[in-house]
Model the fold of this input.
Amino acid sequence: MTISETAMAFFDACETGKGWEVCKAYCHDGAGFSCQADALADISTVEGYTGWTAGLLTPVPDGRYDLKSFSTDHERGIVVATSVFRGTQTGAGGPVPPTGNTVAADY
Done:
């Protein structure tokens, strides 16, 4: 697989709630994670992020990503993806009972 194909497979697995068991094939143990979102402030590993993402799909069962851009910098060995997470809070298990509210969050 090319770097772009591998990155897309990893991104899709992480963002569709496949969890660490699937995503770990694409990174090393203890792989770091960081972002500026307050909701993820306490998450510092990719393993933690994949668990959080899988958990988000319980109260937002139709959660999905809308890929806006995907580019590969071959010289530096970097792939960048930008998306919008979309879904509706119709499932139980969130911080509040289901509201029917929709979410659209850039990331």
